Amino acid sequence: MQTSSDRHEYPAHWEADVVLRDGGTARVRPITVDDAERLVSFYEQVSDESKYYRFFAPYPRLSAKDVHRFTHHDFVDRVGLAATIGGEFIATVRYDRIGPTGTPAAAPAEEAEVAFLVQDAHQGRGVASALLEHIAAVARERGIRRFAAEVLPANTKMIKVFMDAGYTQKRSFEDGVVRLEFDLEPTDRSLAVQYAREHRAEARSVQRLLQPGSVAVIGTGRTPGGVGRSVLGNIRDAGYTGRLYAVNRSFADDLTDLDGVPAHRSVRTVDGPVDLAVVTVPAEQVPEVVDECGEHGVQGLVVVSAGYADRGAEGRERQRALVRQARSYGMRIIGPNAFGIINTSPEVRLNASLAPEMPRPGRIGLFAQSGAIGIALLSRLHRRGGGVTGVTGVSTFVSSGNRADVSGNDVLQYWYDDPETDVALMYLESIGNPRKFTRLARRTAAAKPLVVVQGARHGGVAPQGHAVRATRLPHATVSALLRQAGVIRVDTITDLVDAGLLLARQPLPAGPKVAILGNSESLGLLTYDACLSEGLRPHPPLDLTTAASPDDFHAALSRALADDTCDAVVVTAIPTVGEGPAGDAALAEALRSAAAAVPTKPVLVVHVELGGLAEALSAAASTAPQASPPAEPRRPTPAEPGAATAPERPERREAPAPGDGTRLIPAYPAAERAVRALAEAVAYAQWRRDAGDPGKVPEYDDIDEKGAAEQIAGYLARGQGLTLGAAETCELLGRYGIDVHRALPAPDPDEAASAARTIGYPVALKATAPHLRHRADLGGVRLDLADEEQLRRAYAELTELFGKPAELRPVVQGMAPRGVDTVVRAVIDPAAGAVLSFGLAGAATQLLGDTAHRLIPVTDRDATSLIRSVRTAPLLFGWRGSAPVDAPALEELLLRVSRLVDDHPEVVAVTLEPVVVAPHGLSVLGASVRLAPPPARDDLGPRTLPAY
């Protein structure tokens, strides 16, 4: 039992699960007085050489005094952390606060000496690097700003741990010892190192699940039928290349074989390693199974069993216990309530799922949080006729079920490196860590297309079974931020598949110009209209008439592809009476051969009830990699008693890569679907080009960052969260070069007249009551009041219409140059981070939700695109003869607000409304600022798995 320290309560928030370099997991936690026996046992398993490196002398065993010292910590000046697997120590790290002379000290001393010890069997797994991240975070929390470490020169592994961490450091050599000193403040390099290590570890953890050398299906029924027996049959029938075992504790003692697969009553009796266990037993039996798997060294679990967070509060607690139990053994989990996983690689051929057929091999990776949607996606990609044809297949498929552990973020890490995956398709019902997902998506999208459809968009809550942090941002905002990160965001699984099939085997278009040709004038016109609706720039359709032959199509497509004013081609086709399959095949070959001559431009086909053409276009015999025939059921051999023998692996046949001359042309049953997919490809291609030059965050000489920090600290000293008053708001914004027009209160007509004399005519009289603020359409604003008489008359009108001055809260403000009213907002969301928003002011914009968003910090390119992203943007740029506004001034304002929020995360909300943008300059007429302690940022802390 873990107890409190002698100075501070046990810091439970320091506990964390981490993924190690090889994909396994370990738990990091503080060392307590109850760990004496664990520490002694751990030390006995460390080699003499490692002990020598730690203590600079032979040190065969720990004395009672040593054990007391290394287990008694105050969690402030003396801290020890341990990495554990199965409850036992595999590594330790500690720091001791020291003063300027190197002797023990107490706060406020800002330096500490740090030392590690890693069990030899676990060296090389990245344990020390993970512990360094966690002990550094603990030290920063306790006011320590710098670590010092003394290392023997021969201890090159530990020197490398410190040198590779990315912190600013100094290195010296004295008395035969290397002394390293480094600051603990995160740097761009230390964060980059941390993200790179996180990527390698999480990608490897998913790889271990998707590429196991051996699989055990636990819960395999003794009679045909049932989930376990079905999964076992699916793995066997797919031709899995590794060793396969059937496990059921109810098997008879003399049963050694089930459907040609070795049978065992427990995974413990399997002679040899088991890399992956597929668990199908009832939920109440799962804990016993997990213990058996952990003790046998199983690396990962696919838990198909239901009855967890999908079953209410009791199930949620059962799910938490499952995750904690599996992680204690270093195992990762897909599920529970999972549909399963698939890997079509000829070197693996794993169908550990409830899908009765193995999908065709291909270049598309699929991730679905819902089993039902996973079935639908696999079915649509596998189907060859009717709807979108399956021009390519699947590389890997993961259905995460309740997503208790392995999530879409982990799978993205794997797909980024996976040479077998060219396009990633994801169905998400919740995003547990939007900040991390956005970061990973941006990196992935820069290398390969990522298409996402998000379910439960309007439900307001995560689906049952998903434990995720809440975001206050509306779905439209999250969607806009995903698009900013390069994600192709679609609304339906039909759109998901349509876009994926195009992106998997066609080049990205260089622009929005589209040629349309075909043998149906009407279908061509429908395609033309669809292109205009999607913002593309179509050429007039070329009608080849219904008498067009395959040679006519070939010639027309060749001319269109050769045209420099064409970026993509949509071919429309209707059935030709009497031609039949032979005619379909001839037309498909004509289109393929023409497209192959110009491999840099995408080609799509719109067909109407032309199943033969669709199948011919996707004919795998000439274009797509084929699934290898299932291997014969494996039988034990004398060389491997009790294990199934892996068949000889077939020669690897690589799928054709885009641009190698092989063109797989996607066919669509409707013009709208084809054009929508093409429009997404055009937008994604433009994002790829822009991502190469993201812009910069400009510096402004007139920004008083230090003064603003002092002002904010003074305000927060008054309370944990507060909205600043008008004067305070103007002062803080002024430190960032944002001037707010002065507004004076007018509680009665005389005060209003006095305020107007102070400001100078002409003035505006505004009601600032919440129900009238910024609502000029309701009549709560009077503009261009040239003198006191007009002002008093307007005051009387307002009070007559809307009530007493105390209810209206009227103010007097100087008139600003006329222009377009806009709104600028910034908010810090606990899950997504800081977001900058822009839109035009007015009820119509609010009604239509016409607001654009960017993640903070915003670059100059972001600001330029932000004001052009709203649908009402033409009003800013001279619509119907009006004068264009001062766009550079508006962009600068956006950049200054972004800097304010980025520099001071205590500024949790800023609203500038209205901002009147004139042809020359702009005027901020209203502003509000809210301060609060900033939300914790898990992306700046050490690597951790989501806590349970």
Biggest β-sheet, characterized? 8 strands, mixed
| Count of distinct strands | 41
**Shape category:** flat
Mean pLDDT: 86
Spans of at least 5 consecutive residues with low confidence? 1-6, 384-391, 620-661
For the CA atoms, what is the radius of gyration?
Answer: 33 Å
Distance between the termini: 19 Å
Plain-language structure description:
With 948 residues, the protein is an alpha/beta fold. The chain contains 27 helices and 41 strands. Helix 8 (286-296) packs parallel to helix 9 (313-328), helix 11 packs parallel to helix 12 (434-445) and helix 16 runs parallel beside helix 17 (580-597).
Quick description:
Helix 12 (434-445) runs parallel beside helix 13 (475-484) and helix 26 crosses helix 27. This protein has 948 residues and is an alpha/beta fold.
